[in-house]
Amino acid sequence: xxxxxxxxxxxxxxxxxxxxxxxxxxxxxxxxxxxxxxxxxxxxxxxxxxxxxxxxxxxxxxxxxxxxxxxxxxxxxxxxxxxxxxxxxxxxxxxxxxxxxxxxxxxxxxxxxxxxxxxxxxxxxxxxxxxxxxxxxxxxxxxxxxxxxxxxxxxxxxxxxxxxxxxxxxxxxxxxxxxxxxxxxxxxxxxxxxxxxxxxxxxxxxx
Length: 207
Known about the structure:
With 207 residues, the protein is mainly alpha-helical. The protein has helices spanning 3-8, 13-22, 51-153, 159-186, 192-203, and strands spanning 28-30, 35-38, 46-47. It has a three-stranded antiparallel sheet with strand order 1-2-3, with helices on one face.
């Protein structure tokens, strides 16, 4: 296995803890001769021609347990934060979902409002067209009323006027005949002036 593969592999904390527990208890001390000695009597636990390597090996016996303890503490704090954060997370997720539902509902209401607005706009346009048509029809009706009124006032085109003229002429003829008989019979006994005015009126316009 390459060095890169070893560096990228996840830490096996259980195996590290087992090696720490199986090793000679700390502290270890690096001596000037490069040997690493435990605190108790016995053989050296390691050694190196480089004093710095020997010191590193000796320090690792205490550094690794310290790092494991710090890691344990960090994990405990993480778990505590998770426990404390979970209710907040649940509440925030619920609020987020509610906000999304409200946004979706508002989007649907907006779409419905747009549809209603479009329908109202079409209705207004149709009403405007109907008003235009109504105005045109009203103008036509007014023109027709004027035309019919002109026809009604025109004696030459109104049958009623012709009928009335015919009846008036017949009546005048009868009155003229009666007046003539009255004059012959009475000699205008009532008044010559009245008789003359009557004949003048009867001979006048009859429309």
